[in-house]
Structure formats: C-alpha cells, structure tokens
User: Fold these one by one.
Assistant:
Number 1:
Amino acid sequence: MIEIKDLTVSYPWKNQDTLVLDNISLTINPGEIYTFIGPSGCGKSTLLYVLSGIVKDYQGSISMDGRPIDPHTQRIGLILQNYGLLPWKNVYHNALLGVKIKRDQPGLDEYRNYILRQLGIDALLDRYPKELSGGQQQRVAIARAFILKPDLLLMDEPFSALDAITREEMQELFLDIWKLNSVTTVFITHSVDEALYLGRKIVVFSPAPGSIRAVLDNPCFQLDNLRFRDEYAEMAMKLRKLLDKG
Amino acid sequence: MMTVQAKETWPGALSSLAFVLALWYAAALIINLPIVPSPLAVGINIAEIFRTKIEVHVLSSLIRVLEGISISILIGVPLGFLMGYFDKINTLLSPLIYFTYPVPKIALLPVVMLLFGLGEASKLIMIVLIVIFQIIITSRDAVRSIPNETYRSLQSLGASPAQIFAEIIVPASLPEVLTATRLALGTAVSILFFTETFGTEHGMGYFIMDSWMRVNYLDMYAGIVVLSFMGFCVFALIDIAENYLCPWK
C-alpha cells in the first residue's frame, strides 16, 4: 500500500517558487492499476518523479508499506514516454539493465525469456534502440520494467507517442503481462479512453497547480468489448465532465 | 555498418590522395627547382632510405605522440567527467582552465626545458600541456550535454554514482572524447615537430630540419611525407577504435 499525505511540490522558477502539486493525499491499494488523468502541466509527471525517488524536494510524506519511498531499497519500475532506453546498449542489455543495477542473477531465466517472447522482442536482442521502431522500443522498456519484478510500476504516458493501432495493441499486451503478477501500478495518461481501459481506479487531476479532483472506481476495468458498452460511454461522459469543470 | 562506411571512405581517400599527388606533380613541373622535387622522386627516395635513415626517427616520434596523447587522456578524461558531473568541482576548476587555456603554452617551451631538461620529459610535458585542455573541456561538455531524461531510469533504480558513471557517463561521452582525441592528435604532431627541433637527434622533426640544413630536399620531403602518413595511420586507428567501442553509432 502506498500512502501519500499532504504532498506539496514547488519548483523555483524565475526567482519565485511555482506551486506544482497542491496538497495531494491519496492511498494506493496494492495490486491495482491507478490511472492518473488531467490536463497537460497539471503536475502528474512531477508526482511520478516524487514516487520514483527522482524528485526529493517536497513537503508532506510518502510511504510504501509503512516505509518511506527509496529507490535503493524498493524496486521501482519506470516506463517513460520517450522509452528511457540507453542508446549504447542493445535490446538484451537494455532489458536486463534493471536487474544489473539491482545486482540480481545475470542472464536469462525462464521468466525473463517468457517476458521477452511475450513482448515479441526475443529475436531482436542484438539490435540497438535506433534500429527499432517506436513500438519496439516501448516493448523493450516494458520488458525491462517487468523483468525487474518491481514492487511499484510507474508509467508516464508510455503509449502516447505511438500510432493508434500500435497503441491499442500495446495496451492489451501490457494488461496480459500485468495480470501475471498484478504489480501496483500508477499509469499517467491524458487519454480518457486509456484511463478507462487500463485503470481499476481513476484519479482525476485539476489544472495547475495540480490537486486531486476525484478518485473514481472504474466499473469498465477488464470488461470484454469495453468500447461498445454503455458503461464505457457513461464513464467517459462522467470523466470528461470532471475534466472540463473549470 | 562498418563495412558500408569503409566502402564509402576508401575510394574517397584514394581519389583525394591522387588529386594531391597530381597537384604536387604539376607544381614540380611548373616550378622546376630542387626545392619542389616530383612526388615520384620522393617516393623512390623513401623506399631507398626508410630502413636505414627514417625508421628510427619515425618510431621515436610515434612513441612520443602516443605517450603524450595517452597521458592526456588518462588525466584529462576523468577530470573532465568529474567537472561535468559534479557542479562543485566544475566551479572550482573552470576558472583555472579558462584562465590558462588561451595562454600560448608553446611559448613555455624554454621554461619547461629549463625545469625538466632537454630530454624526453620536456617533450612529453609540452604535448600534454597543450593537448590536455581540449580533452578536459570536451569531456566536461560531453557529460553536461547528456539530457536529464537519460538519467531517470537509473535514478529510479537507485543506481550508485559508480553505476551511473559506468552505464551512462562513460558510454555517452565516448564518441566526443574520441573526436577530441582526433583533434588533439593533429595538434600533438605539430607540437612534436617543434619540440623535436631542440635537444634531440631522434624524431621526424629533427630529421626534417636536419635534411633542410643539409640542403637535402629529397630527404626533407621524404620526412614530411612519412610524418604525414604517420599522423594518418594514428587517425585511422582512432576510427577503428570508434567502430569497435561505439557500435551503436
């Protein structure tokens, strides 16, 4: 369980502090996907950087299973919009970067092979990132995160740079692999459709400075043929209204 | 990838070599004085005297250049990396570097020779003194130009500074460090030529100046051609190293 209490973040900008996140409190249940949705610049990404231990300058408290968030002791998988691959490492070394840093057993075992096969990159292990398409690079980033077996998975608009068809493929593929061990996941998106498709809970953010407008249970999660159902249209309408509310 | 590049580069190199030789040959015909011998005569001369007269000089020059460059890299690159990564070290050392960079250090040759003698040490010190600044500044700027996003994945994994250096800083800066090495090489050969005209009887600088003094223009040109070829070989060596060290480029 992750508990965020009274989290406030501000950045120094042009000699004054600009408030980015305003008094966020949220409890994230283990083993569920939370989609965070909100307008651009509302501080969702900043929240993700705080959760991943990259931004350390904040007020309030964050704990995971009762201990403060610390990337040295906890395993945090991070998947970014720009894929976050290292250009000088081939697919194999990029995919195993997480376990290398954590000093786990090197090499491929059954689970790691399964992930690579499932993501369809097991034949590309010698390639470098610049020799891959955007979708393939994103698969490598996902493989890296899952191979790490993280306690917490953070995803920052991971599919928004992909074309529509690849995006839907990747969403399904991600859910398939996620179901294997149901890691607690925070998924940032600006797409209502993606928030409904992937999130068991949906957290709606206000425009900057970001605060939480609502936390919704998503009845659409894991429904078949979701996009043709009434629940989907209803929830989409509700979300859009929440997002539009000035 | 490597073979494609090589296929494109070699015919280009050969045709420019042919072009330079043609210009040289035309100049020799037009000027028609001993000061500009024909490339053919110089080539024959090299073949005749390389083993007996040039080899020992080219080897001492080559060793000096390689030693000078290696020392500069071994000191300059780690220093540049530290300056690039740690702002405090940069604030401390940058003014020193900027202040001393524009000083024409070749003018310090007499001082260096007074302090370290006329032998090998002062020749190496001159090369290092001049070349190391380019290497420090390039390495530092290479590290500073790594985008913050590149570090994000490793930071979220809780990587140690040593891991960040090994996984990101070294590989990300390597291509630029190799480019700096190429530039440094040209400079190093020029400095070498100058320092070898003093206090030594070995080295291409000595050989060329000595031939000039003895009005043996054929030997002098042979020396210039061999020195250029030596520089070209080291240059090619760096290219090969880059293909091997940076296969992702």
Number 2:
Amino acid sequence: MTVPTSTYELTHLQSLESESIHIIREVAAEFERPVLLFSGGKDSVIMLHLAAKAFWPARIPFPVMHVDTGHNFPEVLEFRDRAVEQLGVRLVVASVPDSIASGRVRERPDGIRNPLQTVTLLDAIQEHGFDAVFGGARRDEEKARAKERVFSFRDEFGQWDPKNQRPELWSLYNGRHHKGEHIRVFPLSNWTELDVWQYLAQEQIELPSIYFAHQREVFRRDNMWYAISEFTQPREGEEVATLTVRYRTVGDIPVTGAVESTAASYDEVIAETAATRMTERGATRGDDRLSEAAMEDRKREGYF
Amino acid sequence: MELLRFATAGSVDDGKSTLIGRLLYDTKSIFEDQLESIERTSRDRGDEQTNLALLTDGLRAEREQGITIDVAYRYFATPKRKFIIADTPGHIQYTRNMVTGASTANLALILVDARNGLVEQSRRHAFIASLLRVPHLVLCVNKMDLVDYDEDVFNRIKNEFRQFATKLDIGDLSFIPVSALHGDNIVHRSEDMPWYDGTSLLHHLEEVHIASDRNLIDARFPVQYVIRPQAQTNHDLHDYRGYAGMVAGGVFKPGDDVVVLPSGLQSRIAAIDTAGGPVDEAFAPMSVTMRLTDDVDVSRGDMICRPHNQPRVTQDIDAMLCWLSEQPLSVRGMYAIKHTTRNARTQVRGLDYRIDVNTLHRDESADSLSLNEIGRVTLRTTQPLFVDEYRRNRTSGSFLLIDESTGATVAAGMIL
C-alpha cells in the first residue's frame, strides 16, 4: 500500500486490498486449520499475494492446496511450484487422477474433469481436517456467485444452502461451525476482473505466461477456441488454426477456451478488459454453458 | 479512484431493477453474454420486455418465483468512481436483507413510484437507512413519465418525505425525479424536466462527498492478530512483534502515545508497518501492523487507542437490535456476541420496546422479537467490551449475536 495523501482517501484498490487482508487475518485468528486454494490462476495468485502481505514479515501461517485435474497447462504447473517455493508455503496437491484411480469418481465420457474436482476437494478437506478453505471466487464472475457470502458455511457434506445463508453485516464475519463442517472464505468477493488486472499491474505480480498473447494451435468447438494438447484433439470437421491468443481464466484444459488477443503486457490486457463486451466465464468456460443454473448446482454440491 | 458502496431498496414494482439495469447498461457494465442470456430467459418465460431483474436474481428459486430473496451485489465503474451496489429486496419479510446491505453502505437509494407517492414501504426503508446510519440518502421519485413530468407531483412527495425525515436522523438527503425506463435523470439530465435544477443520479453518485463520513477523531485499533516471525528464518526479525488489524477510527501516527485496553498499559507507537513499507499515518479502513516501543502484553481482542480518548469499557450495553432469525429472541437467553475482534457471551437482560418499522410506534408491552423485527434491548456481557455509540462509530458501535448451538447469526446490534 502506498502512502496515502493527507486527505484521508483511499483508492478503490487500496480499499479492496485492505478489506481482503482483514478477511485473511480474521481466518488465521479464528480457525485451526485453514488452507488456501491455489491453482496458479490469476485470482488465486492475487489471493496468495494478499496472504503474504497480511502476515508480512512473517510467513503465511497455512498451507496452499491445488486441486489438480491432471489436465494442466505446463506453464501453469511450473509457475505454481515456483510461487510456492518463493513464499516458503507448504503445497498440498489433491489429485483428480488419484480419485479416479481409487474409484472415488469415474471419468466422464466427454473427458471433462472440472465437475469431478468437487469430490477430490471434499475428500481432501476431510482428510486434512481443514476448517476454513480460501477460494478466489469473485461475485462479478457469475450470478450464483453474486449471492455468495464472504464467509460461506458448508455442512458436513460440503454442501452450500443458498437459501439459508447467514446474514453478513459490517466487517463482522461469523465463522462458527461444528467439527466436520467448514467455512469457505472468499477474500476477493468484491473485486472485479478489471480490479484484478489493475492490481496485478500496480503490484507487478507475476502470472503464468498463458495470460498474455502467444501463438497456439487451437480448434473451434461450440464457438470457442480450445488448445490442441495431449488431452484435447479436434474432432473431424472442427476448424483448426494457429492463432495469437491469451487466456482470461485458467482451468481444466478441455473446458478452458482461449480468446484471440494481442495483449502482451498488463497495460494492454487492462485496455482490453475495460473494452470487452463478454464476461470472462462466458467467453472462456464451457462448463458454465451446461444450464442457466450450472454454477449454482455445482456450488450446492461443494464446488469452489 | 474512490470506492462508493450503495444500497438500493424498493420493490420490483417501483422499478428498482429497471433503474439498476439502466445504470449498468448506460455505463456499459452489462456484458453481451449476460444480456443474451437474460433475453433468452425472458423470451422463454413469455415476458414482453427483457426483464432486467434477471440480472440480479441469480438463484434458481428467485428466477422461478420472480422475486428477489437475497442481497445481490453488482459492480460497475465510471472514470470517476468504482461502485458496489447491494441490491436488497424491498418487502417487509426481507427487512434483514436491507439491514445487511445498509450496514456497509455509504449511500442508500430509495425508490418511490411518482403515481403512488410515499407508501409504508418508503418510510420503512428510510427508517432502516437512518437506523444503520447510512450517511447519505437519495430519494428517487421514479416513473415521472407517467405523471407527465409534473413538478408539483415531485414537490409534493419531496415535502412529505422531508416532514417524515425530521423524525429520523438523516445526515444528507437528496431528491431526484427520474424515469428509469426512459433514462431521464439517470445518467443524463432530462430534457422533459427543465424545472429540475439538480444533477442526474449518476452524477450525484460520482460526486457525493464520502471521505469525511469516516470518524477521523476517535482513534480505535482493535487488535486482530499478533505477528511474530519465526526467528530461525531471519535473525533480524527475532524481536519483531507487530499488532495487525484494521483501523476502526481516528488517525494513528508513529510517536503517538497510546493505551492498550483492557490492561490500561501505556506505550508509544514505534512504527506502522505494511508489506509495502512503513506509513506515516493510518486511518480507517486501512489494514496495518502496529509496533509499540514497550514490550507490553497485547493480544487479539485488545484495543489500542489514545490515553485521552478511550471507548467505554463496559459489560452493560443498551442497543437497538434487528432480529435476523426465524427463532425469536429469548429474553434472558444467552448468546455469543461478536464485537470488533472480541468474542464474548451475553445475556439479553431486557427488551425495552419493539418498534413498528412502518409507523415508528414503540410497543413497550412486547416480550420478544421475531424475524425482521427491531427493538431496544439491554445486554450484560461475560467480559467487558470496548464500545462507542454506533452513531459515532459504525465499527466499534456494532455487534452480532450468534446462537451458540446452531452457530447462526441471529441479530445485528447497534450500541446506543
């Protein structure tokens, strides 16, 4: 945070940062075993950065966890390991392929593993006894997430009950729960995609390279460009091209679309984000297109 | 760019969704895929027009029943400010949601239908905004197009509301005649109301002065977390002991004499740290880490303040309570209480009166509070809390009551 001027005003990024740090510290103070979900995606990168700031000069007092679908962009995996090492935090990997191998979940016919993450995540929460789980979800992303609390209660099955949420007032967060239940915590609730990019630029935070324009072999499916990779191949009749693209979100390769873009720097991405007419999930996430309430349904079951 | 949080209250009938939709649409904050999605849904449902309410009604049940159940947050920005809208349902059974939205709002926007004038609901919304000490209130008289943009209609409603507002404690009150449907006085000044010499709603939201709403006088720092780095990683930090928290009021500077409650020990601020470097001053709502010159015992739940300006240290609290739970208030019952960073237990010793949120009538014979009801109570806490009047400080003057067995948040309290 830069030194404020004597008019006692904070910029919107300072206000958001301060609110997020307050939330992260509150969790560290009131819970026994918090964990921060870290995928290497931009929101989780910011969350980790804020956690580092919240406890500076001490280390982050909780581990981070990656729910790994096995369908990763290599650039993101490399970034994940480097970020974790730099901050000296412990990394827990909860693996969807392991869940498949042990018979906890079955591979879907379409090969998409995003929905399978829920079981892997809940198993890991139970196994490690985590009582607070930080997620990088933002309310501006999606209409069901717009209804989410900052401290969001999950029952012993990890379920979210959107009609029976605890009222959340002022900056007082109620983290009460019984053993086996847990709280999902969303410190970035009030950030928008544009705030995220402005903050990344302001703080000069490093991101996986796929967030910036690069050449990639892609194919067209359901009006989106998907990467050709060891997990995803074009079907017959699908258009294949080599384009200059970047990713607006980072997830399971088979459901994460790229957008055509030449934005190669923070400033160029900010300009593009400010002018875009599509939401990031609408433009890049195949999994949200399943139905009007796809996200709400997944969240009820315990998804991020 | 500054951040302004505002709460909107009013029902779909008042055109609240249309108004929000208009603000978002005219500031280019609605995305094409969102618009396509609600156009498709509106068509499927057989609505004649695109139903902008679908933008905020995000839950399946809300869409199915066509009602807003819960607070929805919406975000938009202009080159001048970033805005967070807490969109709250207007009906009386959702009072708790309006209370929630208003608790963090800088401004409350209340909608009135020009054809109907002030109704019970408008008065209730104004009362709740004043109870929660929202510093700025805007009354939007909507659907002016349906009363031929008549100045007299607007003035009549304005005067009636002013009269009612004298019974309330409202800092800054503005009136704007609008037509959300046609966009009159929303983003641009209306050409149909030349008699109106005020600004458009968006201009008002961009310009209203909010910096001085915060309490910059009473220095209050609830200690949230004690930062003590592990010495083996860095020997320079061996003696580092920082008190992390969010400033709740006033201004703190290095060199200031301070007192720590409840111990009463005095010390001086050695430095105010952030990860980005030390700062010369800290004020609300900055999250910082304070170091003191003396090695005094300080832990979470303590309060750092100035020796000559201290909060009240007390176990006896008079407060207005808004009941948020289906399970009614049990007088003499025990609850957990959460106040700043301090947790304690409390007994509700008595209910002085219940207030009728529509008429402001006080019912002194009431013996309980049910969901959405508001009343004045006296509490006795198991440990002293460090409190200010809510009217002076929304942070050190507010608390939650929590049901100890279910963990549910059952009441929001404002200290008198």
